[in-house]
Amino acid sequence: MTLDPLIPWPLTVLIAVALAALVIWRLVVDPARRLRWALRGVAALAVCLGLLGPALYGGSSRTAATDVNVWFVVDTTTSANARDHQGDLPRIDGYREDVDKIVEEMAGARFSVITFDQQSRVTMPLTTDTTAVQTSMETLSPEISMYSGGSSITAAQDTLRTALERSQERFPNRARVVFYLGDGEQTANQEPAPFDVGDLVDGGAVLGYGTAEGGPMARTELDGSAGEDVKDANGDVGISVIDEDALGQVADQLGVPYVHRDGGDIGPAMAEADPGQVVEEAGDEVEHHTSVAWACALLAILLLGLDVWLMNRDSARLRKAARS
User: Which of 27, 155, 162, 174 is the most buried (most CB within 10 A)?
Assistant: First the structure.
């Protein structure tokens, strides 16, 4: 058992002392309601204990990339719903699968997610919370089809460059790794502006998804779910095709290799990306813990629920006595 305080522990102690004093005072001056004040006291104690962040030891692992910042630049245009990944799966499924694998391979790094369609945005700022990164990818959906228009494969240029520059300024000793995930399909009328990142990228890869034959694209509905297939003016199903030449150009601009992905082991892609050059051979051993603060919160809820029940019972008795 260990503690991982949710707020500074001295503040928790002060709150606990104040609540204990209040409960003791009420137990003395209000003896008729001692049971209810006792319940409230135990509930307050449970809340304070929860604020201390009790957690169970869950093993340990050695960090492998403690001084690395990693950005996933993810294509969320409608073509992310094209079904030609590993047969007939949506490409976005491949994005999610590979991000999970890379996060696992680079344990201890800081990760950020940038998505782009007609515009780019930071979906997840740099964090070591791998669960948050995975949740961000699980809830990710392509752009709403009814609002979609032409998009550029380098739409994330400004957002990525700004993030890299800030990282260089704030963390000059941390390597900067970029993984670009997309299909290279340019639907904007103009040619894509090149990525201008200079020497800000230390490693990574451009990961390409899709096939030369292409796959039908599903519409993205307002609730983020996949709907019917996209159709053109003639009623034909819209087909999205990978453009590996364009992806190769993006890779050259970022200074990283291009790797086509269709599921399977991420090892070869990581080897080509060679983030090992910028990753520590062995980091510190990190302990993993499972929080049990929820149990304290549950106990407090149950006790307060019982208190409310007792209060309602007493109120009913008083009303009955008043009527009599």
Answer: 155
